[in-house]
Amino acid sequence: MKIKRFYLNDTVSYIRFCQRNPLWQNQLKDVADKACGNTFIFTDRYEMERSEVPYRFEDRIDWNCVPWGDPEWCFALNRHTFLLNLAKAYALTHDEKYRSSFIRLFTDFAANASDEKRERSWRSLETGIRVENYIRSLEFFEDTKPLDDGFMQLVHDMMLRHQKALVEAHNDFHVLSNWGVLQDHGLLLASLYLEDEETARLALSRLDQELRLQVMSDGMHWEQSSLYQAEVLHCALDSILAARRFALPVPESLEKNAKSLAVTLARTVRPDGRCYLFGDSDDVDVSDMLLEAAVLFDDSFLAWAGRSGKDEDFYASFPLDVKLPEARKESRTHYFGATGNAVIELKENSELRFHCGLYGSGHGHLDQLHFDLLHRGQLIFTDSGRYTYVDSPERTLFKGSFSHNTVVIDNSEMAVMHGSWDVEKAAEPLVHDARLDGEYKFISASHLGYLSKGVLVTRSLITIEDKYILIADSLRGTGTHTSLTLFHSAEDASVTEEDGICRIEKNGAAAYLYPLSCGKCTVRDSRISLHYNEMADNKEIRAERTFTDSCLSLTLIALDSRADVRLVPVTKPLSGTVFDKDTAQAVRIKDSSAVYTVSYALAELPNSGFLSEADGAKAYARVYVKKDGEEPVILKY
Length: 637
Known about the structure:
Blueprint: H1 11-18, H2 22-36, E1 39-42, E2 51-56, H3 71-77, H4 81-93, H5 96-112, H6 124-142, H7 149-168, H8 172-176, H9 178-193, H10 197-214, H11 226-245, H12 252-268, H13 287-297, H14 300-305, H15 312-315, E3 334-336, E4 341-346, E5 350-355, E6 370-375, E7 378-381, H16 393-399, E8 407-409, E9 416-418, E10 422-424, E11 429-435, E12 440-447, E13 455-464, E14 468-488, E15 494-498, E16 501-506, E17 509-515, E18 522-528, E19 536-559, E20 564-568, E21 571-572, E22 577-578, E23 584-590, E24 595-601, E25 612-614, E26 617-619, E27 623-627, E28 633-636
Antiparallel strand pairs: 1-2, 3-4, 4-5, 5-6, 6-7, 8-14, 9-10, 11-12, 12-13, 13-14, 14-19, 15-16, 16-17, 17-19, 18-19, 20-23, 21-22, 23-24, 24-27, 25-26, 27-28
């Protein structure tokens, strides 16, 4: 029984390519060897919930098992990535143990995992995901030692069971959730395998509807997580690839939304293709996916963004001589207005990523006004990650405000979390300005998360010739409150404090943090999660102060080297009035090449004259920057 080709036409060449990477081979055989002994780990690149701790079934396999109290382990088991690893290991080594283990495990699941238990082994998400793993596995065996007709009949019967389950699993939850895309991708592949064009067209229609609802006008996936945007994008791209290869027409809007997802993912992951820990995300390299999108859409920018993705995962879908578009770099600086995200590109492979917008689904975090700082390719300040989905103190901590680079008022969360997924009174965002051109870039936003406490929190980020970043936090309200400004370093970063200034350094990239309004920072031990089920050590920097009614807190970040930094008053030259530092402040920055003055006011200051002055610079504006010898540049009137 010969199979239809979805992906590889030349398995031998693909395996030879993979053999150049000893790490790939070792990881593959480790997972496959363990599966031969009924021991399972989940360490593949796109495992949504990784687990490096082995779990062994001593007797028969319980496909609904939940070890360690985390059902995500059971879901990972039932995605059957280990079967694909067994197939690859057999193609690599021709060791019969991998082939026989594949047959045994597939047969055991078919016989013992009842599709009536859909909350576990036949949950629709896993049902959709494993279809691709089956099809890719079959192609490896076809080119090495084809599986016999009796087993292939079992595969055919299982595809029918999967198709039936996936046709039935479709409601309003699936339409808006990433689940819908992942399961209808599986429905498409199963239907193409079964040569059922009518159901394949149904799957494409569903996918089209889902992407039209889930992709925002700025190309962000509504769930506000880089990892889940990548998972949805993979299924969209793979669906387009399969449909094209089987000459099945793809809706134009599906292709348009898939490309929009790809371009925005390319702009919002790090320049090296790795995900920021945005929402429920892991530190995953998605370069291969961006390169796949570049080929499918013949896009030069995506080819540049995915330039490092010519790896085992990319060539698992394309021949080694596939024609790649000519790569073309574009500025990464972009404001994603529909969802409240922004990226500001700086020189020397550096950038800021900012969020104050949609909370999205339960995968979103309480991260309004959070920013990541990448400098010289190294993360300096970062989100702390996700760690787990189990309703636990760890889930609350990593998802909450205190694990983000933001401002916390009165030692309380900006929204109320209920369990792992639900949020009450989400912090409503207000984005005011985004000026992202020129030598001085400016973005400002507020949120209403502390309105019940009588405080409106506004944060402005100002970049100064790619050398300095000024963070202006204005807190306006009534009564006496405490504010806590938080910064979380990357793992393995060195954080030291001297004379009130913090130095953060990682692999030769250094930044200096000046808490200009709080006097001094406190450095303490913290934790970061780069992958699900994993934690590492990092540092947390805290700047705390008490204020009554309103205050303005300024923090400066200097890249590479220290500068002479001090606060200067803002005055009205007409009257000589000096404004209170919680109404308006200015920062004077002097280095070996220039002197910069940045003036910031909470609001218009019409009393005592309309012209304001700071360090000799005059303007009618709330926010402006002056470099010595040049005219002031107004960022906000």
